[in-house]
């Protein structure tokens, strides 16, 4: 007979002795199995994420080592460009510009404006290359071997070391081409084009000059003097040289604009109005007049590149965005791969 309309047989569950079916052992077994699977999955997930993070860290380290030489090259190039065309720091080793600039001061020198044809003006403090014969006693012969010499050349080119071939000085411009500079008048004052100059910037106890002189500055040249006149071996000490003690405008490295260090002396190097307001004259084509050399107590006021050249620091800062962008790209790639 068929079974249509009849109920299907039901298999009785094992009894626990209370008359009710007993599902406890089967339920506990299934739950333990599911929990084991979940725990195993969590453990495998954590281990996989840990391995992925380790692989990403290794890739970042390898990437950093590969990119480090490129970062160094970029920083050096930026430092070289800044040092050559924009600004350079010079350290002052002598007292020829006291009290305006003291021994150990670091000054920022503007090297950009001369590229646009800006000429030094009266009253400006300028750094210039030795025109010849000013620093003969300060020149030293290098005993470095060829390898060390080349390394020093590379470092000096970016301002990390002073160059053996660079002999720079720092003075104040007193006369430009066409000016007649004379000292001293009846009141002991220096005059430019017949106008007396109030030199409030002189070191205490110094007079404008302890010996008389008079010179007409040739075209394209400058008459420079230190603010510590009793110590400064400036244009007055080289009047017997070609040019009568004047220096070529082309030897000017740049204008010193700021005392950058130490911080208590931080400030601008302003141009005194007593010099900047004087009338100008047409430069004479004749050679400079000479009045003979005068005595000096030394103090050339040499200015050397600062070994802690901030152009390199700025170069490193300029390379940082490149490093940061590369690092961010690496992290995004690691997150995608994880």
UniProtKB/TrEMBL annotation:
<feature type="domain" description="Peptidase S26">
    <location>
        <begin position="68"/>
        <end position="261"/>
    </location>
</feature>
<feature type="compositionally biased region" description="Basic residues">
    <location>
        <begin position="47"/>
        <end position="58"/>
    </location>
</feature>
<keyword id="KW-0472">Membrane</keyword>
<protein>
    <recommendedName>
        <fullName>Signal peptidase I</fullName>
        <ecNumber>3.4.21.89</ecNumber>
    </recommendedName>
</protein>
<dbReference type="InterPro" id="IPR019758">
    <property type="entry name" value="Pept_S26A_signal_pept_1_CS"/>
</dbReference>
<dbReference type="GO" id="GO:0009003">
    <property type="term" value="F:signal peptidase activity"/>
</dbReference>
<keyword id="KW-0378">Hydrolase</keyword>
<feature type="region of interest" description="Disordered">
    <location>
        <begin position="275"/>
        <end position="307"/>
    </location>
</feature>
<feature type="region of interest" description="Disordered">
    <location>
        <begin position="1"/>
        <end position="58"/>
    </location>
</feature>
<dbReference type="InterPro" id="IPR036286">
    <property type="entry name" value="LexA/Signal_pep-like_sf"/>
</dbReference>
<dbReference type="InterPro" id="IPR019533">
    <property type="entry name" value="Peptidase_S26"/>
</dbReference>
<keyword id="KW-0812">Transmembrane</keyword>
<comment type="similarity">
    <text>Belongs to the peptidase S26 family.</text>
</comment>
<feature type="compositionally biased region" description="Low complexity">
    <location>
        <begin position="279"/>
        <end position="293"/>
    </location>
</feature>
<keyword id="KW-1133">Transmembrane helix</keyword>
<dbReference type="InterPro" id="IPR000223">
    <property type="entry name" value="Pept_S26A_signal_pept_1"/>
</dbReference>
<dbReference type="Pfam" id="PF10502">
    <property type="entry name" value="Peptidase_S26"/>
</dbReference>
<keyword id="KW-0645">Protease</keyword>
<feature type="transmembrane region" description="Helical">
    <location>
        <begin position="68"/>
        <end position="91"/>
    </location>
</feature>
């Amino acid at each position: 007979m068929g079974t249509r309309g009849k109920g299907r047989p039901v298999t009785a569950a094992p009894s626990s002795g209370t008359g009710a079916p007993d599902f406890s052992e089967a339920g506990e077994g299934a739950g333990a199995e599911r929990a084991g699977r979940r725990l195993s999955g969590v453990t495998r997930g954590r281990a996989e994420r840990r391995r992925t993070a380790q692989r990403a860290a290794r890739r970042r380290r390898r990437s950093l080592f590969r990119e480090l030489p490129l970062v160094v090259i970029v920083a050096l190039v930026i430092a070289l460009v800044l040092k050559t065309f924009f600004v350079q720091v010079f350290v002052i080793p002598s007292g020829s510009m006291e009290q305006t600039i003291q021994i150990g001061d670091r000054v920022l020198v503007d090297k950009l404006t001369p590229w646009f044809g800006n000429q030094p003006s009266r009253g400006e403090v300028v750094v210039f290359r030795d025109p010849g014969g000013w620093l003969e006693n300060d020149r030293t012969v290098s005993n470095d071997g060829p390898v060390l010499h080349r390394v020093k050349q590379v470092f000096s080119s970016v301002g990390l070391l002073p160059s053996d071939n660079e002999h720079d000085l720092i003075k104040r411009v007193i006369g430009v081409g066409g000016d007649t500079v004379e000292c001293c008048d009846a009141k002991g004052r220096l005059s430019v084009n017949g106008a007396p100059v109030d030199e409030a910037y002189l070191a205490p106890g110094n007079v404008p000059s302890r010996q008389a002189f008079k010179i007409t500055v040739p075209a394209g040249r400058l008459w420079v003097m230190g603010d510590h006149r009793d110590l400064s071996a400036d244009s007055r000490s080289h009047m017997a040289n070609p040019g009568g003690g004047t220096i070529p405008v082309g030897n000017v490295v740049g204008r010193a604009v700021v005392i950058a260090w130490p911080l208590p002396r931080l400030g601008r190097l302003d141009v005194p109005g007593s010099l900047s307001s004087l009338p100008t004259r047409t430069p004479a084509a004749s050679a400079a007049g000479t009045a003979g050399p005068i005595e000096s107590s030394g103090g050339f006021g040499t200015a050397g590149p600062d070994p802690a050249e901030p152009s390199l620091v700025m170069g490193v800062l300029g390379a940082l965005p490149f490093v940061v962008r590369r690092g961010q790209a690496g992290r995004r790639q690691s997150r995608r791969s994880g």
